[in-house]
Write a structure and sequence with these properties.
BirA Bifunctional Protein, domain 2; 2 domains; single chain; globular; SH3 type barrels; alpha+beta; 35% strand; 259 residues; 23% helix; 4 helices; five-stranded antiparallel sheet
């Protein structure tokens, strides 16, 4: 994707997160895809990419993501000299950051619940999507691109699960305000996670928002579906399930459903 073909609306330092810069486009294929392109070019990172609309928005597992104007579409590009297996903890950093941002933008506390690993729910309905991708380069290092899509003024009817948007729930925040709150809270939780034993703090905060802990849930994988009691998440963010047989099963990725 070539930046010269894009209409750049604005760029500069992020006022709410001084350690980051941003580029804001009118329309883009995918903020995540553009972030990957920049990573392959050796970008120094700590960059937010925003768009008023995406023409090729993507969700997890290659699913399409509806990207109409008025909602928030933003990806953050991070560069690391090296990154170990703790990268799998990052979805929880992202989920906490967005949950805090939504509540601050709406002016309400205890509004957002989290569904493993990084879905945000309000009154049981999904309001957002988070997509994490990586890129490594022998010369430039290791990159993470984390994309956030939030239903601010409208939402798709997906059929698989309930969805909603902030306007339908009566909140008057807009994508610009939500972005500033997201950048601010993301800088905070990124700093927390980066400290020694930082994921212990992240994990505790995530579990305080989590739904389904201690309950029977269904997990759907590509070729398998099973049920168990949601016990905890481990230090790698894996779902810990207690099966009916008494055995413990760890789940690294999958779709979770509640009875």
């Amino acid at each position: 994707m070539s930046q010269t073909k894009l209409h750049l609306r604005d760029k500069g330092p992020v006022s709410s997160a001084p350690g980051f810069t941003f580029e804001h486009y009118d329309s883009i294929g995918s903020t995540n895809s553009y972030g990957i392109d920049l990573a392959r070019q050796g970008h120094p990172g700590h960059l937010w990419l925003r768009a008023e609309e995406q023409t090729e928005g993507r969700g997890r597992r290659g699913r399409a993501w509806t990207s109409d104007r008025g909602n928030l579409f933003a990806s953050v590009l991070l560069r690391f000299d090296k990154l170990d297996e703790t990268a799998v903890q990052f979805p929880f950093v992202a989920a906490l950051s967005l949950a805090d941002a939504v509540e601050k933008a709406c002016g309400v506390t205890h509004l957002v619940e989290l569904k493993w690993p990084n879905d945000l729910l309000i009154n049981g309905a999904k309001i957002s999507g988070i997509l994490l991708e990586s890129e490594s380069h022998s010369s430039y290092g290791f990159y993470l691109v984390c994309g956030f899509g939030v239903n601010v003024v409208h939402h798709p009817d997906l059929g698989l699960y309930k969805t909603t948007d902030l306007r339908s729930l009566g909140f008057q925040c807009n994508a610009d305000l939500l972005f500033l709150k997201l950048a601010e809270s993301f800088e905070h939780w990124l700093g927390t996670w980066s400290k020694p034993n930082g994921f212990d703090v992240v994990r505790k905060a995530w579990l305080e928002r989590a739904i389904g802990v201690g309950e029977q849930i269904r997990v759907r994988l590509t070729r398998e579906e099973f049920s168990g009691r949601f016990v905890d998440i481990d230090h790698f963010g894996r779902l810990i399930l207690k099966m009916d047989s008494g055995e413990t099963r760890l789940v690294s990725a999958g779709d979770v459903f509640f009875s």
